[in-house]
Amino acid sequence: MPTPSMEDYLERIYQLIDEKGYARVSDIAEALAVHPSSVTKMVQKLDANDYLVYEKYRGLVLTSKGRKIGKRLVYRHELLEEFMRIIGVDESRIYKDVEGIEHHLSWEAIDRVGDLVQYFEEEPERVESLRKVQEKNEEAVRDN
């Protein structure tokens, strides 16, 4: 199983390849705001763990194992962002909050969050009902 840092790289590499058709060390460094030398070291680790194939000066390609995990990591991130929106987290905080929790949840917990997102999406009035509860609670806090 990849470390949280490896997951961040795999997620970003998967997204870059999905968007651009390729992922260069410089693209990954820019996307993750790290030095290219750090990317090279991590890419070598990912290569050693069979998540991708890396050839110096030629680029990298995700293995089927790397693609599968990358896709799942992107799904996890997008799902948690949607969950945060549903429960009313301010849009300016969502990315940071998701980055803070995504590596600490089991895949079982992620699946249950997916069930909950589906529950709310199937009937939008459920979200409206949640908003009413939140407003009531915020009102009670202000009154105290």
UniProtKB/TrEMBL annotation:
It is found in: Cytoplasm. Central regulator of manganese homeostasis. Homodimer. Belongs to the DtxR/MntR family. One of its GO terms (cellular component) is cytoplasm. Keywords: Activator, Cytoplasm, DNA-binding, Manganese, Metal-binding, Repressor, Transcription, Transcription regulation. Residues 1-63 form the HTH dtxR-type domain. DNA binding is strongly activated by Mn(2+). One of its GO terms (biological process) is intracellular manganese ion homeostasis. This is HTH-type transcriptional regulator MntR. The gene is mntR. One of its GO terms (molecular function) is protein dimerization activity. Pfam families: Fe_dep_repr_C, Fe_dep_repress. Mn(2+) 2 binds at E11, H77, E99, E102. HAMAP family: HTH_MntR. PANTHER family: IRON (METAL) DEPENDENT REPRESSOR, DTXR FAMILY, TRANSCRIPTIONAL REGULATOR MNTR. It comes from the Bacteria.
